Amino acid sequence: LAKTTQPISMDSYEGQEVNITCSHNNIATNDYITWYQQFPSQGPRFIIQGYKTKVTNEVASLFIPADRKSSTLSLPRVSLSDTAVYYCLGDNAGNMLTFGGGTRLMVKP
Amino acid sequence: NAGVTQTPKFQVLKTGQSMTLQCAQDMNHNSMYWYRQDPGMGLRLIYYSASEGTTDKGEVPNGYNVSRLNKREFSLRLESAAPSQTSVYFCASRNPATNEKLFFGSGTQLSVL
Fold first, then answer.
1. Which residues pair with A72 in a beta bridge?
2. What's the pLDDT score for residue A101?
């Protein structure tokens, strides 16, 4: 079980790049790192997943250093609609998927 | 495809009453999960079912029971509701063999008076 630690909250302004770092010191060899986004009154939804180095999709980039003890979610040019809670998970095929407290991102105009 | 469907969406109970929250998925996923989320907090895992026929305790199982009825359905039962169980409950599913992402339902808002 990979416990994760994230900042409780972050503030940003529209158009800025936001980087949210997650620590997962006990990540297992076969764990993937997965990030989810949650809006109020909704269930979380998948953003991005990676195992090592860098992954990029249409929404975000995920940077994972060689030791895999942390990961950084990068949101380019955020907008007001990116205001949400972001969670990182150490994702293993063992199935006990636990969320930490997440990072509350507030994007201001 | 409907994805993950939860019923009911809202429920008010009195202390001591029982109820079952229903969850069904149509994506042929092996694993299913129940989470609770208290206001302003993160999600906490109650129970999960890695595959049909198996269930395991999560972080906060006390006061709950689950049934994996078949591959599609995973229900959560509160035998004797308490005010501390007032929360939003989310069901999720995924196929773990491919490290696939979790798909969540829209949640059940439960109030216990």
1. A21, A63
2. 85
